[in-house]
Amino acid sequence: MSSFGTHRLYDLVTTVVAHEPPVRELLPDAEAQRTLTDDIVATYATGDVIGAWRKFFAQAAIPIPEPMLEQLFGGDRDPGQVTSERFWFAHELRQTTSWVPEPPLLRAIPTRVIIGIGAESAGQFCDRTSRELAAALGVDPVLFPGDHIGFVNDAVTFAARLQEVLDQP
Fold this sequence. Notes:
Helices cover about 55% and strands about 10% of the residues.
């Protein structure tokens, strides 16, 4: 664990809410998921932006209509969005999904760990990964309104549920 002055990180952080963490290495089909992720990154690297996003949403089990893919990721787009997207595919997607949590270590620290799942995420990739992590930690996952980005789509409702969860012992 990291240290901050004379404090250990878990002495400073009393509660962690991990909302739909994409920890694919806990999945029974982790090897197949790694292969899919590598294919997504390789597809993007060839310049097939829409193809990469199509594969990403398929792996994530998030239904997205083809016209929406074209609208969001085709044609002229904001240069900042493109730069951010390029970095994400090249440097973040593999790294964020390949992290391997250490459940015994996480269970041993005094920090409260809450695994959040969007109520509308049933069956999706992050629903699966979150349930696996919750099981490994011996905790029940906590449902939040919305989906993977429920905190963006309806921040007020999400925040109210978060406060309710944090207020529980």
